Amino acid sequence: MRTDRRLPPLNALRVFEAAARNQSFTRAAEELHLTHGAISRQVRALEDWFGRALFIRTNRRVTLTESGAAYLAEIGAAFDRISAATARHLEQGPGRLLRVNALATFTLRWLIPRLSAFQLAHPNVEVRLTTSNAPLHDLHDPYDVAIRGGPEQIHGHVAQLFLPETRIPVCSPRLLQRLALTAPEDLARHTLLHAATLPGVWPQWLVAARVPNLAPAGSVTFEHFYLTLQAALDGVGIAMGPTALVADDVKAGRLVMPFEGPALAARSYFTYVPDARADDPAVQAFCSWLRRPDRRSD
């Protein structure tokens, strides 16, 4: 048994890695659920242990010294190896926790209706699903797989497309029974449904449909996009539907696409996996399942 290891204070080491990776004591404090003062004290303790500075401190930010950057390169890889080893150990237990963070509307409209198929195929994997529309660098809770729009290059992550997306008007078939809709010009007699988070979608489509100055009979704006789709299902008006997220409703006849086009290009759906989790069997199984054409068991 080795007794000659020289190890710095491990709490201070964990704090240093978070602060150095984030280039911010404030972000490290948020990530580790500590105060800014606690982060500063732990970093100072590590610097005292080494006998040299690891950070250059200015009024509003911190940067690594040359020594600090070299140390981060080594211990960052060590933390990754510890994380991977821990994951492999957990996989050998009775159950494996898989943390998935996905966009809220995507989760509600696409992922949840299909998730039982993954659970049936992988009964030993427990999916812990959280939703957020925040950029990944603003997420404080850990995740194994994140689902966001793309393509994007996110440092420290492997990105992979699994679901292309476009946008086209959709509405309830009951609405068309009350008021016909055969050409884009007919939208002047209808109510258009908007999402506050996507204010430019309808104007872009009207330009593409060559009716840029069309004035609809009414407009309703909702705070969240999934409320816009629900309003379309309930016959309130016409929404700009993401084709992937409304495919089930169109197939079941709950929604219709009154026009064949044009279809607007939209951000497609990608999985973003932290580099340290890329070889995890549960992560690979989940991402592979997402890319399969038969993801849903009917």
UniProtKB/TrEMBL annotation:
GO biological process terms held by the UniProt record: DNA-templated transcription
The keyword Transcription regulation belongs to this UniProt entry's keyword annotation: yes
Signal peptide positions (record): none
Alphabetical list of InterPro entries matching this protein: LysR-type_TF_proteobact-type, LysR_HTH_N, LysR_subst-bd, WH-like_DNA-bd_sf, WH_DNA-bd_sf
Domain of life: Bacteria
Positions of the HTH lysR-type domain: 8-65
Family as reported in the entry's similarity comment: Belongs to the LysR transcriptional regulatory family.
Transcription recorded as keyword: yes
Keywords, alphabetical: DNA-binding, Transcription, Transcription regulation
Name of the molecule in the record: Transcriptional regulator
The organism's taxonomic lineage, starting at the top: Bacteria, Pseudomonadati, Pseudomonadota, Alphaproteobacteria, Hyphomicrobiales
GO function terms (MF aspect): DNA-binding transcription factor activity; sequence-specific DNA binding
Annotated Gene3D superfamilies: Periplasmic binding protein-like II (3.40.190.10), Winged helix-like DNA-binding domain superfamily/Winged helix DNA-binding domain (1.10.10.10)
Source organism: Hansschlegelia plantiphila
